[in-house]
Amino acid sequence: MTDEQKLFSEFKPGTAADWAARAQKDLRETPLESLDWHTYEGITIKPYYTREDIQHLPFAQQKPGDFPFLRGTTGSDNGWQNIQKIKALGNGIPAIDKAADALGRGADGVLFIVEDPQAFDVAYLTGQLDLTTQSVSYTLGSDPTAFLKRLYTSLSEQNTSHRNLKGFLNYDPMSGNGQLSEEEIKTITQVLDLTKDSPDFYGVTVCGTNFSSIGASLTQEVAYTLSAAVAYTDRLTTAGEPLESVLRNMLFCMGAGTNYFFEIAKLRALRLLWSAVAEAYQADPALAAKLRIHSTTSSWYQTTLDPYVNMLRVTTEAMSAVLAGADSLTVLPFDSTFKDSDEFSERIARNVSIILKEESYLDKAVDPAAGSYYLESLTNELASKAWELFKEVEAQGGFEAAYENGFILSSITEVSRQKFRDIATGRMVLVGTNKYPNPKEQIDFDPEELIQRAEFDTTRAAYPTEVMRMATELHLRKRKRRPRAIVAVIGQAAKRHINASFAKEFFSCAGFETEVQQYDDVETAVTRLLHAAAEVVVVSTSEATYAREFGPKISQHKAKPTIIMADDPQHMKDELVAHGYDEFIFEDCDMSTILELVQKRLEREENNGGKQ
């Protein structure tokens, strides 16, 4: 076939205007703009994208390995390291043994979370693991300099050069605390001096996970990570470190959430903007390619309820990270929110990455996301929004100043509160938690002990809903039965059945035994329900007369159930409350308010020994 011969030449290429006209025709009277999606990042996502959306993008035609490295730093493959996170307590010997086992079963490296750096047995570590061929990294809360010196001494005693180390040192007081003390900058300078001759070991780490783990938007995660990295660079170069040494040793730890395409665009935008930062420092462009990105599946989206769903979450999260070109990846075990992971959950987590590589071949194509009109446009949008926010932080004096004046945390809090509101109203779905619960789920831990545990993550998306579910579980264990909710549907209108279905799913997610009962009229419903054993009675009816009649009559129930209407009566709310209704449930209502009301009733029942 010659260049002039083209398949399907009889078809006219569709333009953006053609697509818009066709979509509007199919929508009839509905405005095309109604299909737009407005995100937490302040980005409006259109229902479709065309070639015209990317034709003016400067990076659209760039190749992998080319500055500014949006498509990755290599033109050969899309390989990544499968890093298993291992908690090291005390002398760390059991953790080191576990690491040796993991490295023999598919892990490419390990990341030790070192509880006590001084107690950690580095001699045992260097004796059991080959640190020059395997990637071994360390998260330290203190004493990184002393830890490295002990490690180097142990290596020297075995005639092994520290220059061949692989991995990174995760010590990041900047993004964790918002500022660096003089002692901390001195410590990081010493770490940099110790690691700068090890080309495959990174000593300056910035944890974007400190922002994503508390509900930040992706724009905020990228902008604040960049800003913290610039703050490190400025402080370290001011302390006398060469710029080249700082940039070569920079590593970003980033979370990978459930917003699949956005997460792909996030890492691509991050590399693009880091190249802009290196360019602003007038550094050699090749130094921007030295940036290493370590991704970890999101802790913010992990759930305690129906935890096996976490296996599915981390799979899509891991896919987005590797498609975006992460250099290394940690997949969190599905049960990490409520217990110490075991051999089974760790093996499943490790195998997620292995399957993506060995069976899905995601390492074979460089920048698999390239060419998508949507992803290319989204990368540009996300990069632009993050860059504007980055400049706003810099205008306030940089990361430390913006953190100290409250701008960074308050802006993240604003977004996270909106996310919590969306979870409470059902607009944002957490499968198995606020939608599609597992009615047969058996909770095999002590809910009361878990909630009071210091390490139980209360910043996660699912936490408010989980607390309510835990209260229901405690009721079950004390009373030997689940609290019961009856949804009484009075009449036949389709709208009533929609409201009833919503209410049924809502109370099922709260852990209640839930039943829908159909009645033709109020009298029949009241006669049956006055003696029914239920903590909650939900009324699904749209007639005002029925609504006014039901409340006063069912309120004569000796057990005094919480009475809820499955509707949004708007101007009738005050009147219906006066007629005996406690709350109203409907799509987009604040479910947390209803759960709090119901759980308080359960608590009173427990305190009264089961009596009202």
What is the tally of helical segments? 23
* DSSP strand count: 16
Task: Report strand order across the widest sheet.
Answer: 7-6-5-4-3-11-10-9-8
Reported for the largest beta sheet, the result is: 9 strands, parallel
- Uncertain residue segments: none
Write the layout of secondary structure elements.
Blueprint: H1 16-27, E1 37-38, E2 44-45, E3 81-88, H2 93-103, E4 109-114, H3 122-128, E5 135-140, H4 144-157, E6 167-170, H5 173-177, H6 182-195, E7 201-202, E8 204-207, H7 209-212, H8 218-238, H9 243-248, E9 250-256, H10 260-280, H11 285-288, E10 292-297, H12 309-323, E11 328-330, H13 343-358, H14 373-395, H15 399-404, H16 407-425, H17 447-452, H18 463-479, E12 484-490, H19 494-509, E13 513-519, H20 522-529, E14 536-540, H21 544-554, E15 562-565, H22 573-578, E16 583-584, H23 591-607
Parallel strand pairs: 3-4, 3-11, 4-5, 5-6, 6-7, 8-9, 9-10, 10-11, 12-13, 12-14, 14-15, 15-16
Antiparallel strand pairs: 1-2
Helix pairs in contact: 4-6, 8-10, 8-14, 10-12, 10-14, 12-13, 18-23, 20-21
Please characterize this protein's 3D structure.
Its cofactor is adenosylcob(III)alamin. The mean pLDDT is 90. Strands 7-6-5-4-3-11-10-9-8 form a 9-stranded parallel sheet. The chain has a 5-stranded parallel sheet with strand order 13-12-14-15-16, sandwiched between helices. Helix 8 (218-238) runs parallel beside helix 10 (260-280) and helix 12 (309-323) packs parallel to helix 13. It is globular. It has helices at 16-27, 93-103, 122-128, 144-157, 173-177, 182-195, 209-212, 218-238, 243-248, 260-280, 285-288, 309-323, 343-358, 373-395, 399-404, 407-425, 447-452, 463-479, 494-509, 522-529, 544-554, 573-578, 591-607, and strands spanning 37-38, 44-45, 81-88, 109-114, 135-140, 167-170, 201-202, 204-207, 250-256, 292-297, 328-330, 484-490, 513-519, 536-540, 562-565, 583-584. By secondary structure, the chain is α/β, with parallel strands linked by helices.
